[in-house]
Every structure is written in C-alpha cells, then in structure tokens.
Specification:
The protein has helices spanning 40-57, 77-91, 94-107, 109-112, 121-136, 140-161, 185-197, 201-212, 216-220, 272-279, 297-310, 320-331, 336-343, 348-355, 360-378, and strands spanning 8-10, 16-24, 29-37, 73-76, 116-117, 227-228, 233-236, 239-244, 252-257, 266-269. By secondary structure, it is α+β, with helices and mostly antiparallel strands. The strands form four sheets. The chain has a three-stranded antiparallel sheet, covered by helices on one side. A three-stranded antiparallel sheet has the order 6-7-10, with no helix packed on it. A two-stranded antiparallel sheet has the order 4-5. The relative contact order is 0.08.
C-alpha cells in the first residue's frame, strides 16, 4: 500500500520502494529514481538522505571524496545517530537498542549532536567526547560503551555515504580496579553448611550457582524444561534483565531474552549434590525459581544478602558466586577450556583475566612445590 505524498510503496516482492527526483546530466533533465529497503522506515531514511544531498550537499561539492581523503558530509551527527538507532531497533535485540539509545541520549546527543563530518570531524568529536568523559568520570565499562556507540554511528555513516571515516580512539588511561575476591574457604564452608540445611528455593539457587557458575539473569530465567533430570544436564537458553521501558509509563521493565552471546547458550552437567535439592522444588509452574514468571533479579539479590547474614558472612554482590566457582575450578585442576565453556565465555582469556583469582593458600602450595623441586636439585630434599 502506497504512502500518499511520500512516494513510498510496498512492492509485491515484500520490499519497500521509495521514488525521488534527481537531475540526470546525460539527459539534461530531472528523472525519477528509486531506493529500496526491507522496511518503510529504512526507505524513508534513504529518501531523506537523497533529498538532503540534492538540495544542500551536491551544489557545494561531491559527497564521495577521493580514496584516502577526509569525509565532507554536512549532516549533523544527531541525524546520523537517529537513522542508526532506527536500524538497531529493527535488527538487534530490544535490550541492546535500549542500552545504545541510553548511552547516546545521555553522553553523546548534547555533546556532539550538532557536529558534522567535516574535515576536522574526528578531532572535534574526539576532543568533545574526551572532555565529557573527563567531566562525568564514568566507569571504565561505560567509557568503552560511549566510544563504541560513537564509532558504530560513524561506521554507519561511512557505509551509507561510501566514505572512509577513521574510528575514535578508546582512552589509554585505564582505571585501577581491584578484582573482586572470591569467597574464602571458611566463608564457603559456612555458606554451604547453611544452604544444605535450608532447602528453600533461594538457598537452592545459591547452591546451583556455586556448582555451575551461571549468571544471575540466567538463574532467574531458568525453566523446568531446561533441566534434564535423567541425564543430569542444565541447558542455559535465556536470561532476564531489567531495562528502561522507553514508553513513558514506567521506568523499567523485566525482559526475558536470549543470552548475551552465542557462547552463552550452553549445556552444563549437574552433580547429584545439587540435583537432589533442585528436583525437590519441582511443581506445576514453568519457572524453577520464579513460578509463573521469571524470578526478579533484585529479589534474588536481596535474598542472597539475607542468606549471607544468616551464614555469618559480610555483604557481597551475587556475582561473587560466579567468581568463586571459576576460582575453585582452576584450583581443583579443571581444564581452563572446559571452565570457559561452562561459564559461557567466548574466549579463555576472559575466564583467566576476569574470573580466576588464586588464593593465598594456593600460591603458598605452588611455591612449596617449587621449594621441594629446588631441594631435590640441591640434594637436600625434605
């Protein structure tokens, strides 16, 4: 059905077509040309672009510069960002779109929204964004997200306008951040003693995380159909997270989605120590820990603090269970590749650099073995 007044229609093959007037130098007159897309919004964006080029850019010079030259696109960064976000909304997960939109609206729109991709574009963008980051001092992760979103918008502009746009550089100054310490052996003993004694669903949830290292969102989204009681296997196939609603009605909503990456979809063997109390919880509701709906992550965080207090352990973030599982795996001889797959990591470097923290006892044991080796070499072994 055609959109009257916009020269946009949906074709019989399912694609959308938009028509616009353009001057043909070979014919010496205006002719109609077409742009195509999978959605109405995509075609409308392309028509806006062609109209902009025809009315403003082409009279000043060629849009597409020679190879290796600096881009000269007189289009505000904000307009490119909105077009890019439209594509993200159509092609990516809604949670991803909400995250990117929040980063752009909060940290880029007011700072560089009116900048155009002129000769000094990257220098100006880099300078303004760097000044903004220095002023608001976001976390290292958020800093990376700001630069990442800006670069994705620039890459989108480069593809759309057939120009080569250099990427912005990430800050070389990294914040010194001490990795979280896993639970000590004494803390683990106290926690295990409590959760084996108390078999309510929250204690079993903590036990499951200690034995598998699954993420909080994955735990809360777990369904009984994800558990194979016969083969004692757990399938991680979804996650839940609380994200901005974006509808003006509520601040956030709990959204169920696929895991964060393809490697996060995985199968994890279960031991009998965790399988038995887990199956005792089974009822006629679809979600293991939530019932009719996924468990609210904030509820699990709150219950975890209560469990820690009753076990005589100081307050910790729920994610400490994942760190503890990973560290225990390495210290007990688990192959790092196997551990990485169980954790759902795409690279073993993530496992080693972010989740494995050898304890002082382990360091002492390893050094003790080295002392014994030196003793044998010197002929005075103990």
């Amino acid at each position: 059905m055609a959109r009257h007044g916009e020269n946009i229609r949906k074709r019989a093959d399912g694609r959308w077509e938009g028509r616009y007037k353009a001057f043909d130098e070979s014919k010496g007159r205006e002719i109609y040309r077409s742009v195509y897309g999978h959605t109405y919004s995509e075609v409308k964006g392309k028509l806006m672009e062609r109209k902009y080029i025809s009315e403003k850019v082409l009279p000043q010079g060629n849009l597409v510069p020679e190879a290796g030259s600096t881009p000269q696109i007189e289009i505000p960064f904000a307009q490119l960002a909105m077009e890019w976000l439209t594509v993200v909304a159509e092609r990516r997960k809604h949670s991803t779109y909400i995250k990117y939109e929040a980063v752009y609206k909060t940290h880029l729109e007011a700072v560089v929204g009116q900048c155009s991709l002129t000769a000094a574009a990257n220098i100006e963008l880099q300078g303004k964004i760097s000044d903004h980051i220095a002023e608001v001092s976001p976390s290292e992760s958020l800093q990376k997200s700001i630069i990442c979103v800006a670069n994705q918008i620039l890459a989108f502009a480069g593809r759309k306008h057939a120009v080569s746009i250099p990427a912005l550089k990430q800050s070389e100054k990294k914040q010194s951040r001490k990795p979280p310490e896993p639970l000590s052996k004494d803390e683990q003993a106290s926690l295990l003693s409590y959760v084996f004694q108390e078999t309510d669903k929250f204690s079993v949830a903590v036990l499951l995380c200690l034995y598998t290292g699954i993420r909080l969102g994955e735990l809360c989204a777990l369904k009984w159909t994800d558990i194979d009681a016969k083969d004692m296997v757990l399938r991680v196939d979804r996650t839940v997270q609380r994200i901005a609603a974006g509808n003006g009605l509520t601040k956030t909503v709990l959204m169920e989605n696929t895991p964060k990456s393809p490697s996060s979809k995985r199968m994890i063997p279960l031991s009998k120590e965790v399988m038995a109390p887990l199956m005792e919880l089974q009822g006629d509701q679809p979600y293991v820990f939530g019932g009719a709906l996924p468990l609210e992550p904030r509820t699990m965080q709150y219950r975890f603090q209560k469990i820690l207090g009753k076990a005589g352990i100081s307050s910790k973030n729920f994610h400490i269970l994942r760190h503890t599982f990973a560290t225990n795996g390495i210290e007990n001889g688990m192959d790092v590749k196997i551990l990485s797959e169980i954790l759902g990591h795409s690279d073993v470097k993530i496992t080693l650099n972010r989740y494995v923290h050898p304890s002082m006892d382990t360091k002492r044991t390893q050094l003790g073995r080295l002392s014994g080796f030196y003793g044998q070499l010197g002929g005075h072994a103990a």
